[in-house]
């Protein structure tokens, strides 16, 4: 009986002991848990102190050079040609040439920006050429005006900031400017101002105003851009006559654009390399600012100095009776012609260089290499010593090399 009572009394005693142990374990766990935030805070403080010390020791990050500083130091390459490239790929309609691809396939726009940078472009130009009110009205998308501009700027900014290149906004020929109609001048200025406003809000490094045939419209663009305090690149598109559309000598037109505030003046589009080059020397002597030259990559001639004026005797059934704009393939310049143009233009003192409608990344790479650059794409520049038939590599088969003359 005594033993039985002891056993009965031992059970609650054991339970109390177990409970005591449990409570002790909980208190220990609680203390450990409470200690974790303090430990984390301590570790975070140590890491912050370590970073602060490292920051004090490391030299300050070099300031990214702007457009004018880069031009003072040497050439700046700006890839264009987006309109024709996306038309060839089937994402943009010839005729209207509105960059709807910005809204419909933004990934492709980003990809082409990256291809041009890979090939050697120093500038990522937002694809807002012809994304103005007048053009969008023609294709029934005026309500998308702000959306297409902001989207194009977002895409370009993403690429520029991730590659260390310059981000450029863009305005262009309005197609409504009329020298005899003052109302059109005000309408054009409003169109410029709204696109420039979105570009400034996006944080662009400079703004391009391009493809103006009227010098007076180019002056409007220069004034609008300079009102922002940003550098202005303003270029004329020269038709068959070596003059602006209102009949000004090109040297006089360039001086007026410079006086209106342009930091860089020159030419883009319409003329190929060898019909643009003769214009550069005259204008270089007329202006004090930097100069630009961005020809189309087509073999224009003195008799047919623009890509709209080219004729093709080898084909009889051209839409509209002319190769422009979708049958220009037989006239495309090779990369070596673009390289030679870049060398000659740079020798004249033209530091802002590029290629306009029709350009491909291979043209930009050719230009970059001609100016002494080795962009990432140069890793894949041709090495014909390895070619099976035309090569010189010792591992090649001699019977193939001997056959090269019969290919």
Can you describe this structure?
The protein has 407 residues and is an alpha/beta fold. It has one domain: Alpha-Beta Barrel (TIM Barrel), CATH 3.20.20.330. It has 14 helices and 8 strands. It has helices at 2-57, 67-73, 82-89, 101-104, 106-119, 133-138, 145-163, 182-202, 215-226, 250-259, 273-286, 335-347, 361-370, 398-402, and strands at residues 76-79, 123-125, 166-172, 206-212, 232-236, 264-268, 290-294, 352-355. An 8-stranded parallel sheet has the order 1-8-7-6-5-4-3-2. It is globular, with a radius of gyration of 32 Å. Residues 1-20 and 34-39 have low confidence and may be disordered.
Question: What are its keywords?
Answer:
407 residues, alpha/beta, TIM Barrel, eight-stranded parallel sheet, 14 helices, disordered N terminus
What is the CATH topology? Answer: TIM Barrel
**Radius of gyration from CA coordinates:** 32 Å
* CATH architectural category: Alpha-Beta Barrel
Number of strand segments: 8
What value does the average pLDDT take?
90
First-to-last CA distance: 117 Å
Name the quaternary structure: single chain
User: Runs with pLDDT <50, length 5+?
Assistant: 1-20, 34-39
The overall number of domains is: 1
